[in-house]
Design goal:
By secondary structure, the chain is of the alpha/beta class. 44% of the residues lie in helices and 18% in strands.
Length: 268
């Protein structure tokens, strides 16, 4: 598809379809978005112009919701998929700044550090694709990007350590899905097949292939292991703030050194 795709076309044909197919993969997805926004709103309360980054943003589903919830914030959405970035810019570019960088590879953090200390970093259904050693490094770099008192929020489909509890969580998720009603008619693979069949996307798909954007396998980390990595990265306060079945929201706070005062609410 040409680089000058219109927001109207992108929203109608592809971003809306993306939103629908994603409902298959995240239990209580919309509620989970609200929880992430609640955490960010609390963590940046009183700030005139907080800076928030969304890692692995795709076409901007979470970033756009944060920009809507916190219109005074500056929201940066980070991804390396040229197609999804183009869709996001076309639809949400007026409210969100999109950054082309591959999380965990190369100088990805430099693109964010140039914007200034971050007040919050969020991610949803993205970090589980990273190998464990890369994820550990990403958490460390995020810790360095955040101001003291800043928050990291990771929302994802994460299993529990105990097998029996894992099975109970699966039953809860299954009950939710059964009550939700008809399943979305298109899944993730179907969405990409539709994109490939649309000749207007040929240049972006070619660039995507050239970048070798194979998402890889799920790293298989449980929620508990994610929290362990966050603590090892230096976060002083780590925990789960919400869970529905396997759908979790984990939060971590870069605690302030005793000698460092809190950021004044009127500072940008």
């Amino acid at each position: 598809m040409a680089r000058n795709m219109t927001a109207e076309t992108a929203a109608r044909l592809w971003v809306d379809r993306w939103e629908r197919q994603q409902e298959l993969y995240a239990t209580a997805r919309e509620e989970r978005f609200h929880v992430v926004a609640d955490v960010v709103a609390h963590g940046t309360r009183g700030m005139r112009r907080p800076l928030v980054a969304d890692l692995g943003c795709g076409p901007g589903s979470l970033a756009a919701r944060l920009a809507d919830r916190l219109p005074h914030a500056r929201v940066l959405a980070v991804d390396h998929d040229p197609l999804l970035l183009a869709l996001g810019r076309a639809v949400h570019g007026d409210a969100v700044g999109f950054v082309d960088a591959r999380i965990g590879s190369g100088p990805w953090a430099a693109a964010l550090s140039a914007a200034g200390p971050l007040d919050a970093v969020v991610s949803t259904t993205a970090l589980h694709y990273l190998p464990v050693d890369v994820l550990a490094s990403v958490y460390e770099e995020v810790h360095g990007l955040l101001r003291p008192g800043g928050v990291l929020v990771n929302a994802d489909h994460l299993f529990q350590e105990d097998t029996a509890i894992r099975r109970l969580a699966a039953a809860v998720a299954g009950g939710h899905d059964a009550r939700r009603g008809p399943r979305p008619p298109e899944d993730w693979r179907g969405w990409w097949a539709g994109v490939a069949a649309d000749g207007r996307f040929a240049d972006l798909l070619a660039e995507r292939e050239a970048r070798g954007l194979d998402l890889g396998d799920d790293n298989g980390l449980t929620a508990q292991r994610h929290m362990e990595l966050m603590r090892k990265a230096g976060f002083g306060a780590v925990g789960s703030v919400w869970q529905y079945g396997h759908s979790c929201v984990l939060a971590a706070v870069r605690t302030r050194p005793r000698s460092l005062p809190a950021r004044h609410p009127e500072q940008g």
